[in-house]
UniProtKB/TrEMBL annotation:
Taxonomic placement: Bacteria, Bacillati, Bacillota, Bacilli, Bacillales
Keyword NAD: yes
Domain of life: Bacteria
Residues binding substrate, per UniProt: K200, F245, L246, Q247, A248, G249, G253, K316
GO BP terms, alphabetized: polysaccharide biosynthetic process
Organism: Paenibacillus roseopurpureus
Protein name per the record: UDP-glucose 6-dehydrogenase
Length: 434
């Protein structure tokens, strides 16, 4: 199929390289500086397997680049929209990038027969876009086809999804989408467009709710000396619940969960609904970092000249994305309390904020620190020499915000005098054995 994809962020770029790999003729469109970067081989995002597929696409000729969306779509059978839809400060979703693209086709007076909306858009958006197109005489059909890929495993998720959701109006659109995804072995759920749009929000906010539920239970575990890992293992092994997204920690981050939750709350308000469960999910998440800071303050007594070493800057492992990362909330809170931050991340080497020094290794970050906090569960943190980490510190206190460290690593850390290990949803362990 000949397809034009607008937007080369996580969703657009991953869709472009994967569809090219599957034999489609893909033209990816973005703004001039981004396309210049792509032409020079600069991808802008870091994702396992992406570079290889990108190189494949270029070599096969299935992947091309353009800055002019109309020119790129002259003989395209479908136009896929994967532009950003950020949440505005008033809670409404900013659809200006989508409108901008469609305005170009309306002005041109022609458009590919099918528009596939991959961007996450509030329920009813596809209907509204189609009305605007009709008003200018364009007969294009709009399909809602939300994407569920996760950063860090984006290629895998795109190629092997749990399902493909297609919200469409006609057998023609359904047949085209089935053709587009013919090489992907996954059930295709065909439904109306509004339901398809809502599935994406419902899925993301449900996952966020599972995480907040686990975090709430972890506080209760701490209050009663239970172990959240055991509790959630027991809960998650019930097949009606499932084991995923029940890991307690510093709270969810990333560009999707908070944004989609706020957007859904706004959609609720627009039809007079308050969605209290989602309010609670957001509230629990907002309280995570302040709760860890309170633990630190109670360990330290006073905050005078305190230094915190932070391991992990990206919002999750295997990505360099810092958007809405718990790290940013932590940094703000530390600045508020006058705590200096020295951070290390295997991929993120620069943070565009004051008040943080990014170290070149975990060991350097820990030197002179009054506590270490693990924020992201990068697997390489497990194999650090934890006795060496403790030795360099001013006070060997560790907050394991992801329950990452196995007993062996904790034992090594606790070899040091006065060392304290503070996990999530479990009892605190010190070198004195209490
Ligand atoms: C999410 C959705 O999973 C994906 O389907 C959608 O398309 C985009 O949003 P992503 O934001 O890439 O994907 O990451 P995800 O793996 O879902 O993690 C989100 C956040 O939740 C991370 O900060 C992660 O650390 C946190 N998390 C996840 C937990 O705190 N506990 C868990 O058990 C799982």
């Amino acid at each position: 199929m000949r397809i034009t994809i607008v937007g080369t962020g996580y969703v657009g770029l991953v869709a472009a390289v994967c569809l090219a790999k599957q034999g489609h003729q893909v033209t990816a469109v973005d703004r001039e500086p981004v396309i210049r970067g792509l032409r020079a081989g600069v991808l802008g995002i870091w994702e396992p397997g992406l570079e290889e597929l990108f190189a494949d696409g270029r070599a096969s000729g299935n992947l091309r680049w353009e800055t002019d969306v109309v020119r790129a779509s002259l003989d395209a059978e479908a136009l896929m929209l994967a532009v950003g839809t950020p949440t505005r400060p008033d809670g409404h979703t900013d659809l200006s990038q989508l409108h901008e693209v469609l305005a170009k086709f309306m002005h041109h007076g022609d458009c590919p027969p099918l528009i596939i909306v991959k961007s996450t858009v509030p329920v009813g958006t596809c209907d509204e876009l189609e009305v605007s197109l009709r008003e200018t005489g364009l007969r294009t059909e709009i399909v809602s086809n939300p994407e569920f890929l996760r950063q860090g495993s984006a290629i895998q998720d795109f190629m092997y999804p749990d399902r493909i959701v297609v919200g469409c109006q006609s057998p023609y659109a359904e047949a085209e989408l089935r053709h587009l995804y013919a090489r992907i072995d996954a059930p295709v759920q065909v439904c109306d467009r509004r339901s398809a749009e809502l599935i994406k929000y419902a899925a993301n906010t449900f996952l966020a709710t599972k995480i907040s539920f686990a975090n709430m239970m972890s506080d209760l575990c701490e209050g009663y000396g239970a172990d959240i890992r055991q509790v959630m293992a027991g809960v998650g092994s019930d097949r009606r619940i499932g084991p995923h997204f029940l890991q307690a920690g510093v709270g969810y981050g990333g560009s999707c969960f908070s944004k989609d939750l706020q957007s859904l709350l706004t959609s609720g308000k627009l039809v007079g609904l308050s969605l209290p469960m989602l309010e609670a999910t957001a509230h629990i998440n907002e309280q995570r970092i302040p709760r860890f800071i309170a633990k630190l303050i109670s360990c330290w007594g006073n905050l005078q000249g305190k230094r915190l070493a932070v391991l992990g800057i990206s919002f999750k492992p295997n990505t360099n994305d810092v958007r809405d990362a718990p790290f940013l909330t932590l940094l703000k809170q530390c600045q508020l309390h006058g705590i200096a931050v020295q951070a290390y991340d295997p991929v993120v080497q620069h943070v565009p904020y004051d008040g943080v020094h990014v170290a070149d290794s975990a060991y350097t970050a820990s030197v002179g620190a009054d506590a270490i906090m693990i924020l992201t569960e990068w697997p390489q943190f497990v194999s650090l020499d934890w006795a060496r980490m403790a030795q360099g510190m001013r006070q060997p206190i560790m907050l394991d915000g992801r329950n990452l460290l196995p007993n062996k690593a904790v034992e090594r850390f606790l070899e040091h005098d006065a060392a304290v290990y503070i996990p999530v949803g479990r009892s605190v362990v010190s070198c004195w054995g209490d």
